[in-house]
Amino acid sequence: MKAEYDFSQAQRGAVIPQSGKTRITIYIDDDVLATFRERSEAAGKGYQTMMNEALRQYLGKEQQPLDAETLRRIIQEELRAAK
After folding, report:
1. Higher confidence at residue 63 or residue 73?
2. What number of other Cβ atoms are within 10 A of residue 31's Cβ?
3. Do 40 and 47 meet the contact criterion of CB atoms below 8 Å apart?
4. So where are the chain's domains?
5. Mean pLDDT of all residues in 29-41
6. pTM for this predicted structure
7. What distance in Å separates the CA atoms of residue 40 and residue 51, rounded to the nearest whole number?
8. pLDDT band at residue 41, thresholds of 50, 70 and 90?
9. Is residue 37 a contact partner of residue 47, using CB atoms and an 8 Å limit?
10. Residue 40 and residue 37: Cα distance in Å, rounded?
11. Quick one: pLDDT at residue 25?
């Protein structure tokens, strides 16, 4: 290890910048956060991911592919309507 390091050209920030996401500070009501945390534990995914999905859905910008359950439901509805 060197006795001294030159940090004159150093920059603050992540070593590997994350594209497509921005870190922010936001205040969420305690009850809303608790609900998302409870639901995330039951679903087996992170509460922040679930909050992001809920915001996308609210904004009409859902970017997720259809899951098998939703696809089955849509096909069943269409088959019923075609009869």
Report:
1. 73
2. 8
3. yes
4. 30-82
5. 95
6. 0.54
7. 9
8. very high
9. yes
10. 5
11. 92
Distance from C-alpha of 52 to C-alpha of 21, rounded to nearest angstrom? 11
Closest-CA residue to 50 (of 65, 36, 64): 36
Provide the pLDDT confidence category of residue 46 given band limits of 50, 70 and 90.
Answer: very high
Kindly report the number of other CB atoms within 10 A of residue 41's CB atom.
11
Q: What is the DSSP string of 7-71?
A: -TT---S-SSPPTT---------HHHHHHHHHHHHHHTS-HHHHHHHHHHHHHT---PPPPHHHH
Give Cα separations from 50 to 5, 26, 38, 46, 78 (angstroms).
43, 16, 11, 6, 29
